[in-house]
Amino acid sequence: MVTVTVGPKAGALPAGSGGLRDVEFAEFFRAEHKKLIRFVIAIGASSDEATEIAQVAFVKAFEGWDVIRAPRAWIRRVAVNELTAARHAERRETPQATLPDAPVPVSTALAVELTEEARQVLAALQALPPRQRQVMAWIIDGFGAAEIARELGVSPESVRQSHAKARKNLGRFYGRRKMR
Amino acid sequence: MIRRLRDAFAGGSSIQATDAAVGRGMADVLAALDNVIDDDAALGRIGARLDENVPCAAQGRGARAAPGGACARIGTPGPAVASARASGPAASRRRPALRSVAAVAAVLTAGAVAVTAIGVAGAGRGRTKGSAVNTAYVVKRVDSALDAADPVAIAQMTVRTSSAATSGGATATTTSEEWSYGDRWRAVTYSAAGHLLYDEGSSTASVYTVVSYLTRAWARQHGLGGPAKLAPGPRGCESVGTGLPLLFAPGLPSGGPAVGSLPTTVARDLRAAISCGTLAVAGRQRVDGTETTELTSRPGSMISETIWVSPGTYLPVRVIIRPGPGQPGPQQTANITWLPSAVPNLAKLTVPIPAGFRHVPFAQAVTPLMQPTRVQSPP
Question: ipTM value of the model?
Answer without folding.
Answer: 0.84
